[in-house]
Amino acid sequence: MNVQEEGFVDVVQRARDLGCRVPTGLALLPRNFESAGSKDELLHESEAPTVRILWRRAGLVETPIEPEGERFPQISEKSFDEWVAPTIFVSGALMSQNPAVLSVALGVISNYLTECLKGIPMRSREAKLDVVVQVGKGQYRRLHYKGPVEGLQELPAIAREVGWNEPEGD
Amino acid sequence: MNPRVTEFLDEFRETVAECRRFCYAARAREFQAESITTLDTLESDIAALKAEMVELRDEDAANCLLSLSLAARALSYELNMWVALKDDSAALAWDCLVEAQTCASDAVCAHRISDHLEQYVDRLEILEGLLFPPITFMSAGMVIQESHCSICGCEYGDCDHAKGEVYMGEMCTRVITKAALQGASIVPEPANKHARMVGISDGDGMRDLLTWRLIPPADDEGSATGG
Fold it and tell me: For residue B87, what are the domain limits?
């Protein structure tokens, strides 16, 4: 299994502290979401716009943390031993309303990567991706995946296992 | 598939098979140079046919022809690599190999017609290890502030074109127009294999890392090669 699990900051509180919009469903979190000193320091992974394109085409609605009309810069490190995805956040409310959402969100990324990476040597066809899920009120955990693209499909089941199904209306 | 493209495929396969015969070190330089010219002509023919398919809005045919064009170019670069090695131009040979690898990879991504080239990608990887010494690669880290889509010109991410995908015979790329350089680092697997350490200083001066020859110092600034 290529998945590691660890604690993560209170996403809602952190978003408020930084002056960002609070993600209520599916969202992308900047690489330095936990450590940035201010909103101006936030940096997305360079593939964040690509993931947004894929989700939009699949009809998935994102609740971005960027304040209306703002964009966060993206950091690009031109190494190619793996494809680095942005951190994906799924709220407890969305997981309870639509348990399949993470499978769909990761599925479109996986399909895209399968096509785009098929021309490079097999040993470089790896992906790195973090998923942050809510495990309780104000409690979050990060699932870190690093491995072959096809292994991304393992993540939704693990996320459902550790995730918290927020009661409706809570 | 468009019948014009199907008909052209026979000519393509025949020409490529003929040129591939010379993708070996032992083959004579003149045949390799001749094959490069043949492939240049083939690429021109592909470009003309692709323009026709774009005119007809036949996207599958246009994408297929892009893939064939990239495959022909990959082969041409490989032949250029062999010629450059025979001409004792190691740096040029390296650049040609990197271009061949890039074109072959893009050909595979562009259309299923080139799925079989995954083996050719592996062959080029093997040649890299056999023909060139271990290379130290560099990578530039940067913060991207502005970029646009090569297909429609929109801010990248605002349109539905994703980089690496092919639209009407053109591969989408992300064109970075404003970025802040963060630094350079040594990486084992760079995205750009052209970014490499070219020389190293030892007691005798600066050595070319490919040929191990001493690099002559610059005429006006001897200190430029000091390390």
Answer: 3-131
Q: Note whether B122 and B149 are same-domain residues.
A: no
The answer to whether residue B81 sits within a structural domain is: yes
Containing structural domain, residue A36: 3-67+79-162
| B152: closest CA of chain A, how far (Å) | 14
Q: Cβ-count burial of A80 within 10 angstroms (0-12 exposed, 13-18 middle, 19+ buried)?
A: buried
Find, in chain B, the residue whose alpha carbon is nearest to that of A43.
B143
Residues B34 and B91 in one domain: yes
| Model pLDDT, residue B222 | 46
B122·A121 Cβ contact <8 A = yes
Query: What's the predicted TM-score (pTM) here?
Result: 0.89
Helix (H, G, I), strand (E, B) or coil at A61: coil
Interface predicted TM-score (ipTM): 0.86
A113 beta partners: none
What's the pLDDT tens digit per position in A119-148?
887 767 788 899 999 888 889 999 999 998
Residues of A in contact with B163 (CB under 8 A): 50
- Report the number of distinct structural domains present in chain A: 1
Residue closest to B206 by CA, chosen among B218, B195, B193, B194: B218
Distance from CA of B218 to the nearest CA of A (A): 31
Number of structural domains found in chain B: 3
The reply to whether B66 and B157 lie within a common domain is no
Closest to A142 in 3D by CA, of A65, A66, A71, A89: A89
Asked whether residue B192 is assigned to any structural domain, the reply reads: no
**Does A127 map to a domain?**
yes
Do B195 and A78 lie within an 8 Å CB cutoff?
yes
pLDDT tens-place string over residues B78-130: 999 999 999 999 999 999 999 999 999 999 999 999 999 999 999 999 999 99
Chain-chain contact of B188 with A81 (C-beta, under 8 angstroms): yes
Q: What three-state secondary structure class fits A149?
A: helix
